[in-house]
């Protein structure tokens, strides 16, 4: 056996990352900070851009920044770091037996390329969830997931009103974070926006009714209309000059008909798991990974919104950042540091309004809930306590002490004695009992 | 809830360039301190103690130090009103004059009455007394002094032949032993007490013995405390007399030369208390302490026995006074520096009232109805058309007569009987029935005006001019420093207007108080026999001896009057500069010139408690005065005790199942008193102490006098305020809390107490029902009281435990309500009190709902020093940090205790092992 490998026969292992979203961007940083030279890294991205901050798309829509302003890794960056970046490219299937990927470039859709890998990371994210409404495939109905969506929506908002359409009316479906951001972006651009949300209140997974209603009131003051507790039954349409079916409005479950020339659907996300089917790896709602972000195929890892860890799928950045660390540690150093899906607080900023939510949102028989409400200032603070420890925190309008509460929650710190003052801030937690006063004789 | 609460005007920083400075006299207790005032633009902006005044030599207590804060137009009665409608002075005085005339014409002179006050000035008193006793022809003039020192007055009369306090404050400094009997001067007479403290510092051999069923700030700094069973003072002094007799403690020569009645007196004492042991049993005190105190009395020449309400407010108060005086006479400890019995009065001019004769059992100028010569003398002096010939009705009897419909017109001046009289609710009923109730009053918060048909706005301290007499017979002038608010007039002026309209124009035609005072002075000297002449007077002598002789002032000029130097009477030809001590030659004001020892059979309080009752003792607290109409206006005076309370022994508290600062309820005569339990070791088991000050204007149920049985001393008519059995139970609140508000509101909680704070008012609240929560709409609870507020911040919990609500108007914090279902007993409102009335940033104001400053620096703890607002927390911090190891050091660092000094006993407690 020849154990003297020549330099020419030595080849770095090929690490291919499918998807070029925020998770990939972060994973690259983690890898480069550990072993910049260990892998021959290739990144395959569907979009024509480098990695960008998707969270900032609403700021682009609102005109607060532009596309360049949210790009975090330009094509030049990949080059500088000796990473092969294939933009505008999709993977059509994974040949896991031979450790090959089949690629298609959007510019040359007829050509199928094969790309070998030693290690594969699937980070293909998610897409907008569908809603059960009729006529969704007509012009003027958009998702709000990527730069392309954003540019299309912007085109609508900047287009000069024609004779027929003096008004610009837009619908946003979904009162989650994305829908609110979209509605805000549109409203800032001068469009009449109506947001339709299935639940009685906005952000119903993070907020309770009082704070959800408060959020509505704040947003309403920013010229957004709301129709809550309602869904779209079907979209109505007209035919434009080009002969295409164009949205003209929507019929709601309430029977109400809304006039609209644009609709943004932002009702949540569906993990992109389909690609993994071709590799024959385990899936449920998403691609299943173990504590080390490994799929059922030992050479294939998955990350971010497309993966499922135990029973959880992901949509917020904090746990995904932890996933990036776990994965990089394993790939670079061979260390197994388990990803723990610890609870994370939701820290949101909706059009300038701060929100903080952690743990349970609603009270139960066994909890005590302390609530502060300042309607005029749109401040709402709620702490839910069970067995003397915090189990839920919800802060609206002023999120001070949020992380301190969160630490108390994680550390199961006893708090009942500090109630209700703790609601106003962690500084009201009484200091540890001091020695009783000793007076000189 | 009564909303007659008033606020002090916010004082503008005064420019001193046009300031004027004036000396005057304090209107609070009987010590009669001199006050130096600074007046700017018709406002009294500052007060300090008058360095030259013989009562206080520059010191002032916390009440006196706050005097300028009480003189404010807010909360004052500004116009006369008749049957609820504003009226002119002419209309109002005509109504009063006509109705009085008509009532007298139809029902005789005794169908009308005056009930006046130890706080009005000598001249006011004189006019009222003259009108009633010389011109209307009835002696139905009594005064709230009846509640205060009537017993002492009668005891003096019995012993000395005249109501005379023999000694002076200097005697306290010259004494070897001071007995303080039934008195807590540390709170009630702080400046006299400070003189005792100073005397003790200067003379370490000076011993102080306190005789009081209650441990007080005074007893805690005494050498010996006889914590006797309530009401057994006469047993104690009878025992002392017997002890003196058995142990060579008598002055046989003095008895022989200057006293009468000794043998009978000693016999009575010995019959009741044959042994020291029997005294110890009767008084329920240890034999050893009893013996020590008797020895101190017996073995020292210079002994002063200072006494006040603990002796006087009793069904046998006169006897108690005489039992005490007997000991001084029998041992000859009287009539020289450093010795004597010393009655200390509660009011600034109780003594002046007595001198005028403004009580139902007195005639005028220390003269009485019992001697026809005296009636004749006064008649001649006044040229009186219709002299009264017999005693009138004393306070309790007077209101009973009103209740029975015998008195049909009553004029109440400068006192608040529906609060202060025993069985006060009956007084309310009586006044409701009475056809004509006239009330001369300064303050809207005086509850009695609610029962008046005619309300006459009166001037008060700082506005009116006239003389007062202190406990040591020193006459001083209260000066008019600022103009009267609204249409308010001086009391003497109001009464003369009515007297003139009743047809007595010539006899009541005075220009100013000076004219009245000189007349009073002239009367005192009119046909006044000297003590020496008195002893040898003939059968047909028409002249009358009075020790009270200020004839030396009968012709002083207005200028001399206005610049009068405080002087103790008598002031006459022989003693133009006054007399510090009387009876120095052993010659008394009796017909024989000898003092009377009075045989006393000591009696217990008239009503004994049942097994479910406790004995209620009542008294003053340090920073309040009477019914709080004046002191209740001053925020800093509300900080020492902000609520009515009930001091109770730990053993009783345990039995009642009540913790410290929880609420207790007292019941008697169908009336209720609710107060905070203060568990102390100051009370004997089975006894409680309750402050007298709170009333319907300041608390839901805290008018203690309404619970007091209308039992009086047969001789003095003084009610038994000190030993009233009452039922006592825990209040058992379902929730408790407070409301701090810029404006007064009317809440309907089962318990509330209001205190004036800098920017508004503070209500402390509790209720026997659950807190009414309305989820997400809890502000509705307050909305009803604040219709103009729509901006609320609310903190609540879903188990209905906590509720806090802050109401804002244009970002200004208007009200702050906090309640807790646990009925918490400890919370601080100091932070919120400082935030109320201020504008707050809308983004961070939610933090106010903690009711705490986040770093706690604003919370100084319970206020100990009212003068400098120094709190317990600050004091303890200073001690623990090692900065201060003595009361003196605390004073140097924090100023506490360096002004009035009345918190010094409390400060000393911090350094006890």
Q: Can you walk me through this structure?
A:
- The complex is a heterodimer of chains A (441) and B (913).
- Chain A is 22% helix and 31% strand.
- In chain A, α1 runs parallel beside α9.
- Chain A has 441 residues and is an alpha/beta fold.
- In chain A, the strands form eight sheets. Chain A has a five-stranded parallel sheet.
- Chain A has helices at residues 22-34, 57-61, 67-70, 75-80, 147-158, 177-188, 209-220, 274-279, 317-333, 402-410, and strands spanning 14-18, 40-44, 51-52, 71-73, 84-86, 89-95, 100-105, 108-116, 119-122, 126-128, 141-142, 169-173, 192-197, 224-228, 232-239, 245-252, 257-259, 262-265, 269-271, 287-289, 300-302, 307-309, 312-313, 346-350, 353-359, 367-374, 379-386, 389-396.
- The radius of gyration of chain A is 25 Å and the shape is globular.
- Chain B is of the alpha/beta class.
- Chain B contains 31 helices and 36 strands.
- In chain B, β32 (791-797) and β33 (802-809) form a beta hairpin.
- In chain B, α4 runs parallel beside α17, α5 crosses α16 and α10 (233-246) packs parallel to α16.
- The longest helix of chain B has 19 residues, at 89-107.
- The two termini of chain B are 45 Å apart.
- Mean pLDDT of chain B is 91; it is low at 1-13.
- The chains are: A alpha/beta (441), B alpha/beta (913).
- The interface between A and B is medium-sized, with 29 and 33 residues.
């Amino acid at each position: 056996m020849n154990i003297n490998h020549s330099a020419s026969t030595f080849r770095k292992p090929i690490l291919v990352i499918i998807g070029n979203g925020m998770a990939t961007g972060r994973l690259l940083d983690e890898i480069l900070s550990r072993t910049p030279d260990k892998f021959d890294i290739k990144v395959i991205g569907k979009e024509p851009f480098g990695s960008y901050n998707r969270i900032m798309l609403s700021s682009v829509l609102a005109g607060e920044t532009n596309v360049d302003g949210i790009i975090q890794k330009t094509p030049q960056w990949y080059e500088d770091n000796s990473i092969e970046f294939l933009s505008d490219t999709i993977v059509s299937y994974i040949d896991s037996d031979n450790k090959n990927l089949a690629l298609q470039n959007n510019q040359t859709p007829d050509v199928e390329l094969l790309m070998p890998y030693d290690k594969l990371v699937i980070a293909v994210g998610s897409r907008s969830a569908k809603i059960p409404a009729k006529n969704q495939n007509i012009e003027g109905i958009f998702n709000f997931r990527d730069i392309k969506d954003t540019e299309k929506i912007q085109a609508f908002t900047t287009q000069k009103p024609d004779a027929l359409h003096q008004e610009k009316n837009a619908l946003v479906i979904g009162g989650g974070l994305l829908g609110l951001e979209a509605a805000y972006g549109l409203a800032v651009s001068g469009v009449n926006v109506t947001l339709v949300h299935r639940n009685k209140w906005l952000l119903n997974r993070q907020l309770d009714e009082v704070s959800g209603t408060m959020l509505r009131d704040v947003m309403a003051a920013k010229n957004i209309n709301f129709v809550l507790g309602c869904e779209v039954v079907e979209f109505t349409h007209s035919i434009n000059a080009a002969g295409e079916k164009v949205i003209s409005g929507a019929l709601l479950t309430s029977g109400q008909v809304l006039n609209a020339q644009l609709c943004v659907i932002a009702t949540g996300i569906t993990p992109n798991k389909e690609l993994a089917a071709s590799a024959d790896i385990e899936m449920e709602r998403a691609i299943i990974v173990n504590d080390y972000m490994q799929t059922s195929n030992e050479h294939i890892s998955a990350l971010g919104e497309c993966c499922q860890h135990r029973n959880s799928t992901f949509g917020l950045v904090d746990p995904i950042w932890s996933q990036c660390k776990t994965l990089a540690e394993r790939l670079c150093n061979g260390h197994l540091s388990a990803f723990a899906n610890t609870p994370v607080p939701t820290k949101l900023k909706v059009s300038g309004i701060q929100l903080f939510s952690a743990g349970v949102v609603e009270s139960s028989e066994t909890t005590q809930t302390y609530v502060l409400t300042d309607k005029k200032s749109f401040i709402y603070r709620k702490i839910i306590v069970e067995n003397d420890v915090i189990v839920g925190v919800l802060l609206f309008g002023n999120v001070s002490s949020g992380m301190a509460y969160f630490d108390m929650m994680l550390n199961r710190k006893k708090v009942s004695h500090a109630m209700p003052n703790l609601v106003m801030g962690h500084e009201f937690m009484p200091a540890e009992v001091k020695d009783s006063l000793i007076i000189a004789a | 809830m009564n909303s007659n609460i008033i606020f002090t005007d916010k004082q503008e920083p005064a420019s001193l360039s046009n300031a004027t400075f004036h000396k005057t006299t304090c209107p609070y207790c009987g010590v009669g301190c001199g006050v130096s005032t600074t007046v700017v633009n018709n406002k009294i902006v500052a007060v300090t103690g008058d360095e030259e005044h013989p009562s206080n030599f520059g010191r002032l207590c916390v009440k006196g130090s706050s005097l300028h804060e009480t003189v404010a137009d807010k909360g004052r009665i500004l116009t006369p009103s008749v049957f609820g409608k504003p009226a002119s002075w002419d209309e109002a005085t005509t109504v009063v004059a006509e109705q009085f005339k008509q009532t007298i014409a139809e029902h005789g002179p005794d169908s009308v009455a005056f009930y006046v006050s130890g706080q009005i000035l000598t001249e006011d008193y004189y006019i009222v007394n003259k009108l009633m006793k010389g011109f209307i022809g009835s002696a139905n003039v009594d005064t709230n002094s009846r509640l205060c020192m009537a017993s002492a007055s009668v005891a003096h009369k019995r012993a000395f032949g005249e109501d005379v306090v023999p000694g002076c404050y200097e005697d306290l400094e010259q004494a070897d032993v001071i007995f303080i009997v039934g008195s807590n001067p540390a709170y009630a007479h702080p400046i006299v007490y400070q003189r005792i403290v100073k005397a003790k510092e200067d003379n370490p051999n000076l011993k102080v013995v306190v005789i009081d069923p209650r441990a007080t700030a005074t007893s805690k700094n005494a050498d010996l405390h006889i914590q006797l069973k309530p009401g057994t003072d006469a047993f104690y002094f009878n025992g002392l007399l017997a002890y003196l007799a058995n142990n060579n403690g008598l002055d046989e020569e003095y008895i022989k030369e200057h006293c009468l009645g000794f043998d009978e007196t000693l016999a009575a004492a010995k019959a009741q208390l044959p042994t020291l042991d029997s005294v110890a049993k009767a008084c329920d005190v240890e034999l050893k302490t009893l013996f020590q105190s008797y020895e101190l009395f017996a073995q020292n020449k210079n002994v002063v026995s200072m006494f006040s309400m603990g002796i006087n407010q009793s069904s046998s108060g006169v006897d108690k006074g005489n039992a005490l005086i007997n000991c001084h006479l029998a041992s000859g400890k009287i009539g020289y520096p450093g010795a004597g019995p010393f009655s200390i009065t509660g009011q600034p001019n109780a003594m002046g009232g007595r001198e005028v004769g403004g009580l139902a059992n007195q005639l005028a100028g220390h003269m009485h109805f019992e001697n026809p010569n005296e009636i004749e003398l006064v008649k001649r002096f006044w040229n009186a058309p219709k002299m009264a010939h017999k005693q009138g009705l004393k306070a309790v009897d007077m209101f009973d007569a009103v209740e029975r419909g015998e008195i049909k017109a009553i004029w109440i001046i400068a006192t608040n009987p529906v609060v202060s009289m025993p069985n006060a609710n009956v007084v309310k009923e009586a006044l409701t029935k009475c056809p004509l109730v006239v009330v001369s009053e300064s303050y809207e918060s005086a509850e009695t005006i609610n029962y008046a048909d005619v309300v006459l706005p009166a001037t008060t301290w700082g506005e009116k001019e006239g003389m007062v007499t202190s406990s040591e017979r020193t006459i001083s002038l209260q000066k008019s420093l600022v103009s009267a608010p609204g249409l308010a007039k001086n009391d003497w002026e109001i009464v003369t207007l009515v007297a003139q309209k009743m047809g007595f124009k010539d006899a009541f035609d005075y220009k100013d108080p000076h004219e009245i005072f000189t007349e009073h002075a002239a009367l005192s000297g009119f046909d006044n026999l000297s003590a020496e002449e008195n002893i040898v007077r003939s059968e047909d002598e028409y002249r009358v001896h009075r020790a009270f002789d200020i004839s030396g002032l009968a012709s002083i000029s207005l200028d001399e009057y206005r610049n009068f130097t405080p002087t103790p009477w008598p002031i006459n030809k022989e003693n133009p500069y006054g007399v510090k001590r009387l009876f120095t030659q052993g010659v008394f004001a009796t017909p024989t010139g000898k003092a009377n020892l009075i045989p006393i059979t000591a009696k217990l309080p008239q009503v004994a408690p049942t097994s479910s009752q406790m004995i209620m003792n009542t008294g003053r607290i340090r920073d309040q005065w009477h019914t709080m109409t004046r002191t209740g206006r001053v925020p800093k005076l509300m900080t020492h005790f902000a609520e009515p309370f009930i001091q109770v022994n730990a053993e009783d508290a345990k039995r009642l199942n009540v913790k410290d600062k929880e609420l207790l309820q007292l019941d008697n005569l169908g009336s209720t008193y609710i107060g905070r339990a203060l568990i102390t070791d100051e009370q004997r088991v089975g006894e409680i102490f309750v402050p007298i000050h709170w009333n319907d204007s300041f608390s839901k149920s805290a008018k203690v006098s309404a619970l007091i049985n209308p039992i009086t001393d047969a001789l003095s008519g003084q009610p038994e305020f000190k030993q009233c059995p009452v039922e006592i139970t825990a209040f058992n609140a379902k929730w408790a809390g407070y409301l701090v508000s810029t404006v007064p509101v009317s809440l309907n909680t089962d318990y509330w107490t209001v205190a004036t704070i800098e920017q508004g008012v503070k209500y402390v609240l509790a209720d026997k029902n659950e807190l009414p929560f309305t989820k997400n709409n809890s502000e509705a609870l307050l909305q009803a009281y604040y219709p103009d507020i729509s901006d609320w911040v609310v903190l609540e919990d879903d188990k209905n435990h906590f509720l806090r609500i802050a109401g804002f108007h244009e970002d200004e914090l208007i009200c702050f309500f906090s309640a807790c279902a646990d009925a918490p007993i400890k919370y601080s409102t100091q932070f919120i009190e400082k935030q109320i009335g201020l504008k707050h940033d809308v983004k961070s104001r939610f933090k106010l709902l903690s009711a705490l400053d986040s770093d706690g620096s604003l919370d100084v703890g319970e206020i100990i020093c009212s003068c400098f607002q120094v709190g317990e927390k600050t004091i303890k911090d200073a001690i623990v940090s090692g900065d201060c190891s003595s009361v003196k050091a605390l004073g140097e660092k924090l100023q506490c205790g360096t002004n009035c000094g009345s918190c010094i006993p409390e400060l000393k407690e911090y350094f006890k092992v």
